[in-house]
Amino acid sequence: MNNRLPPKLVSKAISAIVGLAILTSLMPVQAEVKINLPNLGKGPGRRVPGGSRGVNCVAKNQFLTALVPISNIGLTTIANPTLYFYIPENKAPEVELVLQDENDQEIYKQKYKHSGNAGVVGVSLPANTLAKGQKYRWNFSIICNTQDRSVDKLVQGTIQRIDNPQLMSKLEKASPQERLNLYAEAGIWQDTLDTLAQLRYSRPQDSVLKADWVSLLTTEGVKLDSQVAQAPLVKEQNVLQPINQTSEISTPQ
Fold this sequence. Notes:
The protein is α+β, with helices and mostly antiparallel strands and 253 residues long. 28% of the residues lie in helices and 23% in strands. The chain has a domain at 65-239: Immunoglobulin-like. The model is unreliable at 18-27 (pLDDT under 50).
């Protein structure tokens, strides 16, 4: 007995499958991460540099941008968080990260040679840098002229390490995706962003993670522009080369 389907029926089935695949690929991917940002007021600093003068080593219509909420304040639960920046295409000899405590005392400084290529990069702080309950001010600069720092492209913001034992207990046995959702629900910006970045590094072709990333950066309370949200996410070691090894302090846990 011949159980083969008629050629016309087979052709229609294949066409239907192909059509469904095309339709699915064209459907927008729904973001799944929703962050509940707390009302922290407005911190000092700015996410994008002010008007420039003098030497400009940055590509036209591109701007150094800190990946922080509109408040300029990011919360973290860890002592050595990663700060994220969109670094535009540039010809700068150096970029620099400086961290100060609440008394304006400099506790960490590191200069880097940047590759010059545009992209979002995470800059990691060393171990045991932030103490629980403390606020810190960071400055990140593109140094166009090492002899005249007044023409730096500078962004500034605040990071605060909080103590949340209930959240930390939930995180202990959570998967990376579960950790992402827990951080987002708790409104912990810095840890939400870094967890999502690490997931994207591990699965660069995952369209859902990319949609989550764009949604997170453009959500209410953040509203970064599309150039930043759509920019490539690159690893620190691929674009930043430390120029000098600075001293690090030991901070109480």
